[in-house]
Write a sequence for this structure.
């Protein structure tokens, strides 16, 4: 069976995010003065064959730990889109 | 495991004796913030407590040395008011934890060391060591480190002009990422770090302060890794080359406008280190108010703010009448600037937070009173064993097959997979680019030229730390000599294992002795250095891997410096320099083809070294088309490199396998239409021509094959 | 005549283009990105670098810098405006040139000499060159891969100034280092007063640096500054 997941990878809170900070400043310069925080992340879609969703999800978790996210500086959330 | 019962100083990596010294200095128990400051400033990384006793052997009293070790960077005089600032650092542990950011912040840090002196950083070099590339994790580390250097260096706008790379299993869990930077300045731009003038303001410039690397440099670089230690690792420091670029421009303008009395970058130990060093170096004190520090996170404790290693920050000492001008200039460059303190008569560094005194310590004590250890050293037991086994080249060796194998080695094959990711052309100074023995740059508006080569040789340093240490100095000197410059100054990065292991300490002391001796023989000042201990994982120490960066200098940059791609049909090929002695210990042939690491590297005579290096520089500066140092892989590899880069074959008259793979140091290949005129040994070995690497009776390798193998060695493993 | 060289926070090739123009006696002035009056300038260069850290998208933040409305104005007046590398990305983001630049085919920064073949001499970058001339100049970029939705319009209007090529001028995948559509290395606008190039002609301005092939482009730009198009 095919399962589809949407993985959101974000920088761990507290780590410096130069891209977010620079973009926030640009937004403020453009008149969006109330912008408090901007941060960047990545969205990865993964489609996987597995017997059931739980198996698929645990496999996706492993992918995140091993490759897709860097656990020393990123967190991730996995949403099922099946 | 730490438990709640573990005393705070132990958790911070301090010994009981060190804690007692702190109590003695203060005449009381330290406050939490004070303990944090001492723990980080007295860590191995910041205090050099295991190495300091031995570093005095490096000399730097040559008349052209303007600033020796101890400041942020060494500075040498290039004449006509020009100075060069140079420095080398390691970012080994952070690069293992997070290769991209570890390497990137290494570049950022070394650049700050250089522009802190008033110099514009003009080039960077990166000596790297990894485990073998058949392990995917090592490939991941190499990929990440190279991307990090490229990502930061290219964006900040400082060209990366070279480096070197070695692969060995001992670096698998402990890669070595060293980074060297060179800056240029005029005499009047030189800035030092000693604060003076009671009432002067301390202004913090640049990035906000977060919990980055709390205890990072000190804790990471002052202890070994063990499995399961992940949770103890500090927050990864994230580099922001864009902030650094603005900081460079702002600081250089501050110096031009004469607005700063002194300046210090924030590296390991952050505000603790910068405030105590500037105050201590000037014999002054300082009052610091942490409420004025621009923090990125809520709820940071005073200790955390003091220890934070957030990147891209500088501390400027400014006369009160210039305070506003500095803040305005910072605002123009769009960087944050806040006055966080004031210079006092001292000698105390006093730190306030929320109106309360959180630390009051003698400023100089953080640096000057750090412990110095005379750690026991013991000759390693492995030496007798490896020395007893003399390497040789088998009689029945197939020279062509052997050369194929060597050219396919990722440390011998084309390394442009790495260097082409680095911008090495910015500033229009690069005359000889990466891929040569040393890179050569001009100083625009003058006839002066500067060359730099970085060299390490973990294998020979393992086989004989003293001789290996000396060899890397001679090798670096040869590599700048072939660009037509004279060796002029050295910086060193001493990468070793755990200093609490007496065998590692012995390796360290021997290597330092060998390096110091070689520098003395060449009259080369050592103007700066870095020690990286605790390169050990799961109880295994790395091979001892000191690295040197040798600066070469010439008043008259050659209009046509030697290049590897300048060989042409019918030119003669000569070998000049030392008498070949069949030196195979630690050689590429023995390591890669025999699969062993054994023997004792040959000793080098200082007088010969001086004569050869001078002669090579003379030839290189007088229009010789190709001058190439013979090193890893011997004559065979050196010739192959020339042939491949010049797209033309070579025909050797009468050569033996022993001669082809011998790695006797202090020899160079000269390719020219004219017989070289030189006072050192010089022997013609062949002619340029044809489409093969033609070894006569020993066989021949088509150039196209050689080129394919050589250029695929790294990409075929990485892609 | 004087050329304004615009410096954004993060620009890093400004001194290189100043040096190259200085070699042929063209006066330059470094202009900070907050400048709102370029009326003294006869031409403008947007040099290479990483304006605003290349964050978000290359050129995306720079296009909102105060100086850009002045550049819009000068472009409309017919003044020569040259973008190099990051300057190319900014001019595309600002809509002064068609298309966009994305990550290189191999997702790696490229720093080496490459070859470009001149396709049109009707541009501020090539008016002193010859069609078919092959120039050896350095490429130094991560996002140098040119794309355009309306690529046919770009081609049909003869907006392509130079393409990546092999040393003999032939064009194929081998000679296209970063995967640019139709091997496009440099383009101009329809009015032909705004042009941009991804490789760096100013880095090939002296033979001691390995090539002086880029000088013909620097000289072309200087010529168009002396004799700008009329409004």
């Amino acid at each position: 069976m095919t399962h589809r997941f949407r993985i959101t990878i974000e920088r761990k809170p507290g780590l410096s995010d130069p891209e977010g900070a620079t973009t926030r400043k640009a937004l403020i310069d453009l008149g969006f003065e109330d912008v408090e925080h901007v941060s960047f992340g990545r969205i990865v879609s993964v489609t996987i064959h597995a017997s059931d969703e739980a198996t698929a999800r645990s496999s996706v978790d492993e992918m995140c730990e091993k490759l897709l996210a860097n656990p020393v500086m990123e967190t991730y959330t996995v949403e099922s889109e099946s | 495991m730490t438990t709640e019962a573990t005393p705070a100083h132990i958790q911070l990596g301090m010994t009981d004796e060190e804690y007692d010294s702190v109590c003695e200095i203060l005449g009381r128990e330290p406050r939490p913030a004070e303990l944090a400051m001492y723990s980080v400033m007295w860590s191995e990384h910041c205090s050099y407590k295991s190495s300091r006793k031995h570093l005095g052997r490096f000399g730097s009293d040559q008349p052209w040395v303007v600033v020796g070790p101890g400041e942020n960077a060494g500075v040498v005089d290039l004449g006509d008011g020009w100075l060069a600032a140079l420095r080398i650092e390691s970012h080994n542990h952070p690069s293992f934890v997070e290769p991209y950011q570890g390497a990137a912040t290494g570049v950022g840090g070394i650049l700050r060391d250089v522009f802190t002196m008033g110099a514009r950083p003009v080039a960077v070099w990166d000596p790297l060591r990894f485990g073998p590339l058949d392990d995917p994790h090592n490939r991941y580390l190499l990929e990440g480190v190279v991307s990090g250097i490229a990502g930061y260096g290219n964006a900040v706008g400082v060209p990366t002009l070279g480096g070197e790379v070695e692969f060995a299993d001992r670096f698998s869990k402990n890669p070595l990422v060293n980074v060297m930077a060179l800056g240029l300045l005029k005499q009047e731009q030189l800035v030092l770090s000693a604060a003076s003038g009671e009432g002067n303001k301390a202004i913090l410039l640049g990035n906000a302060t977060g919990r980055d690397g709390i205890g990072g440099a000190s804790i990471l670089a002052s202890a070994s890794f063990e499995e399961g230690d992940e949770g103890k690792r500090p927050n990864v420091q994230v580099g922001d080359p864009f902030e650094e670029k603005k900081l460079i421009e702002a600081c250089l303008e501050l110096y031009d406008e004469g607005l700063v009395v002194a300046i210090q970058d924030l590296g390991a130990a952050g505000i603790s280190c910068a405030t105590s060093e500037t105050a201590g170096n000037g014999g002054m004190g300082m009052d610091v108010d942490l409420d004025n520090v621009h923090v990125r996170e809520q709820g940071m404790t005073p200790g955390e703010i003091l220890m934070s290693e957030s990147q891209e920050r500088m501390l400027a000492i400014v006369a009160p009448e210039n305070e506003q001008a500095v803040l305005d200039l910072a605002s123009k460059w769009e960087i944050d600037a806040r006055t966080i303190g004031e210079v006092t008569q001292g000698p105390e560094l006093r730190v306030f937070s929320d109106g309360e005194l959180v630390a009051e310590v003698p400023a100089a004590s953080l640096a000057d009173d750090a412990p110095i250890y005379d750690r026991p050293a013991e000759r390693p037991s492995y030496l007798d064993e490896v020395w007893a086994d003399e390497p040789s080249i088998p009689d029945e060796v197939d020279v062509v097959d052997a050369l194929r194998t060597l050219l396919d080695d990722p440390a011998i094959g084309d390394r442009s997979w790495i260097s082409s990711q680095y911008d090495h052309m910015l500033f229009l100074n690069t005359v000889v680019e990466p891929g040569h023995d040393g890179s050569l740059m001009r100083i625009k508006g003058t006839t002066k030229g500067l060359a730099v080569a970085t060299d390490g040789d973990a294998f020979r340093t393992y086989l004989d730390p003293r001789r290996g240490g000396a060899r890397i100095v001679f090798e670096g000197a040869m590599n700048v000599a072939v660009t037509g410059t004279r060796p002029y100054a050295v910086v060193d990065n001493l990468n070793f294992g755990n200093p609490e292991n007496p065998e590692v300490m012995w390796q360290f002391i021997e290597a330092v002795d060998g390096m110091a001796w070689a520098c003395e023989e060449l009259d080369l000042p050592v103007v700066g250095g870095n020690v990286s201990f605790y390169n050990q994982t799961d109880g295994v120490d790395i091979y001892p891997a000191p690295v040197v960066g040798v600066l070469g200098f010439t008043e008259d940059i050659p209009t046509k410096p030697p290049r590897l791609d300048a060989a042409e049909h019918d030119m003669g090929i000569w070998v000049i320099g030392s008498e070949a002695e069949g030196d195979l210990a630690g050689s590429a042939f023995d390591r890669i083809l025999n699969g062993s690491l054994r023997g004792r590297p040959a000793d080098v005579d200082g007088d010969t070294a001086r004569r050869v290096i001078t002669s090579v520089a003379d030839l290189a500066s007088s229009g010789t088309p190709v001058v190439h140092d013979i090193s890893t892989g011997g004559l065979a590899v050196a010739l192959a490199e020339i042939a491949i880069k010049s797209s033309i074959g070579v025909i050797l008259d009468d050569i033996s396998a022993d001669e082809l793979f011998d790695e006797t140091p202090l020899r160079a290949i000269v390719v020219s239409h004219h017989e070289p005129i030189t006072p050192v040994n010089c022997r013609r070995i062949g002619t340029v021509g044809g489409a093969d690497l033609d070894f006569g009776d020993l066989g021949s390798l088509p150039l196209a094959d050689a080129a394919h193998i050589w250029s695929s060695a790294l990409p075929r493993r990485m892609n | 005549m004087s050329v304004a060289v615009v410096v954004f926070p993060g620009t890093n090739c400004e001194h290189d283009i100043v040096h190259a123009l200085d070699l042929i006696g063209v006066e330059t002035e470094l202009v900070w990105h907050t400048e709102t009056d370029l009326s003294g300038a006869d031409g403008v260069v947007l040099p290479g670098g990483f304006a605003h850290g290349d964050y978000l998208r290359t050129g995306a933040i720079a296009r909102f810098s105060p100086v850009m409305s002045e550049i819009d104005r000068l472009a409309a007046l017919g003044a020569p405006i040259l973008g190099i590398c990051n300057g190319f990305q900014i001019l595309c983001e600002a809509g002064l040139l068609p298309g966009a630049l994305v990550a290189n085919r191999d997702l790696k920064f490229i720093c080496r000499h490459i070859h470009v073949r001149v396709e049109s001499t009707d541009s501020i970058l090539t008016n002193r060159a010859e069609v078919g001339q092959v120039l050896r100049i350095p490429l130094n970029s991560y996002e140098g891969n040119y794309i355009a939705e309306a690529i046919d319009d770009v081609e049909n209007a003869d907006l392509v100034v130079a393409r990546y090529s092999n040393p003999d001028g032939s064009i194929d995948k081998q000679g296209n280092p970063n995967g640019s559509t139709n091997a496009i290395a440099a383009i101009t606008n329809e009015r032909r007063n705004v042009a941009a190039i991804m490789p760096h002609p100013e880095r090939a301005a002296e033979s001691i640096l390995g090539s002086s092939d880029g000088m013909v482009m620097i000289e072309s730009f200087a010529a168009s500054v002396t004799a700008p198009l009329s409004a």
